[in-house]
Amino acid sequence: MQLRKLDIDDLLVLSLLLAGHGQRFIAAEMGLSQPAISQRIIKINGSFEFKVYTRITREGRLTPAGVLFATRAKESLKLLTDAAPYTFSLGRGKMLLDLVFKKLPGES
């Protein structure tokens, strides 16, 4: 496992995948290209001895291990924003974090 290769944007990608968003949507929200998101997912997968994300035909999804890790990634982002709220108070980072922590229908 090579966690030091991961950065905050990788945690954002995982959290947005966990929320059910597709790569195209994530790319648009992060101001990146869809291939850039694909490369991030390849990097994330390469950081572990297990697959975090898998492709089935054109669609991809988090593996069960990926769901667990993405859940922890989301919790980590929450801890970071709680520890330094002013760091994320303005700009695009704030919009992305609002998207990550938005309640989905059926969530409590």
Descriptive key words:
Arc Repressor Mutant, subunit A, single chain, mainly alpha, 5 helices, 108 residues, globular, two-stranded antiparallel ribbon, disordered C terminus
Mind explaining what this structure looks like?
It is built from five helices and two strands; from the N terminus they run H-H-H-E-E-H-H. The protein has helices spanning 8-18, 23-30, 34-46, 64-83, 91-101, and strands at 53-56, 59-62. Helix 1 (8-18) crosses helix 4 and helix 2 (23-30) packs across helix 3. Strands 1-2 form a two-stranded antiparallel ribbon. It has a single domain (3-101), classed as Arc Repressor Mutant, subunit A, CATH 1.10.10. It has 108 residues and is mainly alpha-helical. 58% of the residues lie in helices and 7% in strands. The longest helix has 20 residues, at 64-83.
Tally of distinct domains: 1
Largest sheet: 2 strands, antiparallel
Number of helices: 5
Question: Helix/strand/pairing class, anyone?
Answer: mainly alpha
Task: Give the class-level CATH name.
Answer: Mainly Alpha
Point out poorly predicted stretches.
103-108
Helix content: 55-70%
Shape: globular
What is the CA-CA span between the terminal residues?
33 Å
How many β-strand stretches?
2
CATH topology: Arc Repressor Mutant, subunit A
Relative strand content: 5-15%
Give me the oligomer status.
single chain
Mean pLDDT: 80
Series of secondary-structure elements, N-terminal to C-terminal: HHHEEHH
CATH architecture: Orthogonal Bundle
State the CATH superfamily name.
Winged helix-like DNA-binding domain superfamily/Winged helix DNA-binding domain
Order the strands across the largest sheet as they lie in space.
1-2
